[in-house]
Recover the amino acids of this structure.
């Protein structure tokens, strides 16, 4: 795990640690964990555990059960549908805005892309690089709150995202979509950037909810301005 920023509070730092434990499978989906058990596991008192769990509950990773603890959640089709509806509304126009910025951090984007290329055999590292790629673009749009909001959306369904790798789509195919987005950004083509980002997100959404493809097309296939 990367070193956590020193300015984070104890509960914020613990929330990141617990989140990563959920996404790695160290904390099992569906299982109930008490604050005491988690405190002992991570070497902290119950108070920061409770505060961290509230933060994770807000992004849909756990459900607080009064006087019992927190249950690790898995996302439903409805959750995934709602997350990608929001991402499709927000990320393509943000990417288009970022593409037009003269100070766009191309080196950071290329570094994330290089990591994706190098880590195709390591799913956790691959998804971390994927996340960094999108984060660079969102922050380059000039909206830090948007970047944080989308990060929370990704956290809420990250386990489902990992399941698309082995069966439905290869890392090489996912990488190719990111390379198209990066090429559009390097060219400063806002319209193409929005379109390629939209197509990438829609492809991912459709894979995650293949059985609801018609509903996704109705709600998610939005014309880009």
């Amino acid at each position: 795990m990367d070193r956590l920023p020193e300015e984070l509070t104890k509960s914020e730092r613990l929330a990141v640690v617990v989140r990563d434990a959920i996404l790695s499978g160290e904390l099992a989906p569906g299982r109930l964990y008490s604050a005491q058990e988690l405190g002992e596991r991570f070497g902290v008192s119950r108070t920061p555990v409770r505060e961290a769990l509230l933060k994770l509950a807000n992004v849909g990773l756990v459900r607080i059960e009064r006087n019992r603890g927190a249950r690790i959640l898995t996302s439903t089709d409805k959750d995934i549908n709602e997350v990608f509806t929001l991402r499709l509304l927000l990320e393509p126009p943000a990417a288009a805005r970022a593409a037009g910025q003269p100070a766009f951090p191309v080196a950071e984007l290329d570094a994330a892309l290089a990591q994706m290329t190098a880590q195709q055999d390591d799913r956790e590292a691959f998804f971390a690089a994927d996340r960094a790629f999108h984060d660079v673009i969102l922050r380059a749009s000039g909206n830090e709150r948007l970047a944080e909001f989308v990060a929370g959306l990704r956290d809420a369904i990250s386990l489902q995202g990992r399941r698309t790798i082995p069966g439905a789509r290869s890392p090489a195919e996912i990488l190719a979509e990111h390379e198209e987005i990066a090429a559009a950004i390097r060219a400063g083509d806002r319209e193409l950037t929005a379109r390629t980002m939209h197509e990438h997100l829609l492809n991912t959404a459709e894979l995650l909810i293949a059985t609801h493809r018609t509903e996704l097309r109705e709600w998610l296939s939005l014309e880009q301005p």
